[in-house]
Amino acid sequence: MEIPSRVENRFGEARASGDGITFQAGVNTGTININRECPPFDRENYVHVLIVVEFTERPRKTPFLKVAYGATCDAANKEHVPSCLPGTRVEVLKEIQEWIDGGNPKKLYWLNGMAGTGKSTIAMTLARTYKGMTGKNVRPEKNVCLGATFCFSRGGGDLASASRFAATVAIQLAEVSLQLRKLIENVLEDNPRLDSLSVQEQWDKLIIQPLSVFYQCTPTGSISLLFVIDALDECNNAEDVNVLIRCLERVTQIGGANCRVFLTSRPDQPIKAGLGNCVSGSRESFVLHDIEKSIVDQDLNLYYRDQLSRIRMIMSSENDIFSESLIANLVERSHGLFIHAATVCRFVQNGGFLAVERLNLLAKSEKADNAEKELDKMYTTVLEYSFVSASDGLCPEEAEKIHQLFQRIVGAIITISDAMNSESLALLLGEKRERIDTILSVLNSVINVEENNNELIRILHPSFREYLLDAKRCTNNSYSILADDTHGYILTRCFDLLMSQLQRNPLRITQPGAKARDAEIETINRYISIPLQYSSRYWWNHFQKSSDKWRNNVPLLEFLQDKYLYWLECLAWIAQLGQAVEAMLKLNTIFVSHF
User: Fold this and answer.
1) Of 533, 509, 583, 528, nearest to 15 (Cα)?
2) Dihedral sign of CA atoms 309, 315, 316, 319 in order
3) 387 and 442 Cβ atoms separated by less than 8 Å
4) What is the side-by-side strand order in the sheet with 21-25?
């Protein structure tokens, strides 16, 4: 049997039942009754499951859309994400805005560039500019506003997946117009299985159909909608990237509409190939790292002046902490990378009264001959300087423990599939929270704790992850992260939590028939901890990325025999039963490779 690369949740609406797990499929409901009198384990009959489905007619109800709220430009986790500094990126922004506001027949614009060149900042600037033009604020001479945004982020759970892309775009479109909102609501009422459909089917029903009707009923020359999609290369599935490109192209082809798509990514081959299949002449492209060096350097000069002036104000210093020659030195070292400049300024600011010392340290270090090497040297300086201070006064054995702690904690932060706060991370890793907070406190130049978003921990830029995971770039073994060992360690911790915490009826439900969708998120989080939710959802991801050395040390058989049903129940409450489907379909492959 061919094994699909990804399986969507097709169980529908889950609810509690005295005999098993109940789910909704279209206008029907069914109950999965699992035979608890399983025979002893053997390779020929390793899972004995009896599934009995009884269907009865039920009134159709509006499905519950799963939305990646953190993916929008106005989400809480974007509050401190900067826009372009006034006076910078002038020509680039002018060209893009002329494309948005004008009558250019090419309705898809691809801004691509190497890591750290400022693509996301430009996307955020455009989104915020046109976000203020919705409803009554639409400029009459341009008649264009922001339709929707989606900012991909690897390691951000749903922010790295295409599964909630259509729903997230739809919920934003519903805010643009009351007519659009009604059309989208009608789609939800008419399609009770919507959440279980493929990405393309969801896009067709939630986006294409409502917009088509909207523009048919709207006078010619009506409002134009801008879609901003940032960091498509951060989507965690290359096949999904091609699907999303086809979806975005379709929205530009709606008859009578003027929908424009602004897309950013690195110039990765899957995206190049996907865009290459678009209708000839349907898109514009701009390579950000090919901008004339003098223009980029001028922007970097303005950026450094602004940030270092702010640092001087924070320090309450009456003396300048920078000179013309120092600014020129820093600009030259940045090699056109704004992420390098941003990291320099954060590193200097976080030095407090040692800010000037840190600035001079960077300015006097040996220069690298290209952008990537200079960025790597910047990250190495941040790590070494931070841990010299953290290890000051410790004996060699104690200093080594600090570095081992770095490997476990930072390794987990850059490899886990979804962000969490320090309390949850401590429970997942079995570490003291104080140790995690200590590590974070010395690395806030490269790792951010989002104060307005449940204090979730995220790296500031994906280039830091790439640096740590590449031994050729991060040559200091104290900081270089081995992906296999990190995934393997997290896998063992996931199984520790699954075996010790999974239980029947975790939410203490007393009335059969309670719907999973009606459970309050606070209730779910109180009874099913965030680390247990993570372990239930992602242990399979870490299993696939671990070597046999780690796989052979997890109690997989015991889990399937003793905790399997409780795992399904946990996934049902957190609306992730599709994860179990994928694992079940690949069960034979697991056992062949595992034993």
Assistant:
1) 509
2) negative
3) yes
4) 13-16, 21-25, 28-32, 56-57
Burial per residue of 401-438, b for 16 or more beta-carbon CB atoms within 10 angstroms, e otherwise: ebbebbbbbbbbbbbbbbbbbbbbbbbbbebeeebbee
d(Cα 56, Cα 256) in Å, to the nearest integer?
A: 44
- 506-551 residue pLDDT tens: 999 888 778 887 888 899 999 999 999 999 999 999 998 999 899 9
> Within 13 Å, how many C-alpha atoms sit on residue 583's CB side?
22
Question: Is residue 88 a contact partner of residue 306, using CB atoms and an 8 Å limit?
Answer: no
Instruction: Determine how many CB atoms are found less than 10 A away from the CB of residue 143.
Output: 14
DSSP 8-state code for residue 198: -
Question: Tokens 């995971």 correspond to what residue?
Answer: 469
Whose structure tokens read 């706060």? 421
Q: Can you tell me the distance from the alpha carbon of 14 to that of 575, in angstroms, rounded to the nearest whole number?
A: 8
Domain boundaries, the chain: 13-61+483-594, 69-288, 293-469
Q: Where are the beta strands (DSSP E) in 2-131?
A: 13-16, 21-25, 28-32, 56-57, 108-112
Amino acid at 235: C
Half-sphere exposure of 344 (CA within 13 A, CB side): 31
Mean per-residue pLDDT, 125-149: 74
Could you tell me which residues come within 8 angstroms of residue 67 by beta carbon, excluding any fewer than 6 positions away? 164, 167, 168, 171
Q: In three state form, how does the secondary structure of 137-159 look?
A: HCCCCCCEEEEEEEECCCCCHHH
- pLDDT value at residue 390: 58
Query: Which position has the higher pLDDT, 103 or 356?
Result: 356
Distance of CA 259 to the CA centre of its chain: 25
Whether 110 and 103 have beta carbons less than 8 Å apart is answered as no
**pTM of the entire predicted model:** 0.79
- The mean pLDDT value for 56-61 works out to 42
User: Smallest Cα–Cα separation from 159: which of 419, 455, 441, 449?
Assistant: 419
Two structure tokens written together for 248:
């975005």
Query: Which is it for the CA torsion 102, 106, 108, 110, positive or negative?
Result: negative
**Strand runs (DSSP E) across 479-574, as ranges?**
none
- Using the 8-state DSSP alphabet, how is residue 519 labeled? S
Q: Is the Cβ–Cβ distance between 112 and 287 less than 8 Å? A: yes
| Separation between Cα atoms, residue 485 and residue 498, nearest integer Å | 20
> Where are the alpha helices (H) located in 353-482, listed in sequence order?
355-364, 371-390, 396-415, 422-429, 433-442, 462-469
Question: Which amino acid, one-letter code, is at 325?
Answer: S
Which residues lie below 8 Å from residue 205, measured CB to CB, with a gap of 6+? 187, 191, 194, 197
Give the number of C-alpha atoms closer than 13 A to the C-alpha of residue 255, restricted to the C-beta side: 4
- Dihedrals φ, ψ of 558, to 5°? -60, -40
How many residues does this entry show for the chain?
595
d(CA 264, CA 233): 8
The tens digit of pLDDT for each residue in 415-439 reads: 999 999 999 999 999 999 999 998 8
Decide which of 450 and 176 is more confident.
Answer: 176
Q: What is the dihedral of CA 6, 8, 10, 14, to 10 degrees?
A: 120
Residue 103: Cβ within 10 Å count: 6
CATH T-level topology, domain 69-288? Rossmann fold (3.40.50)
Q: How many helices (H) and strands (E) does the chain have?
A: 25, 11
Q: Would you place residue 32 in the very low, low, confident or very high pLDDT band (cuts 50, 70, 90)? A: very low
Task: Give the helix ranges, DSSP H, for 316-353.
Answer: 324-334, 338-349
Average pLDDT for residues 443-450, to the nearest whole number? 87
Q: How far apart are CA 316 and CA 328, in angstroms?
A: 24
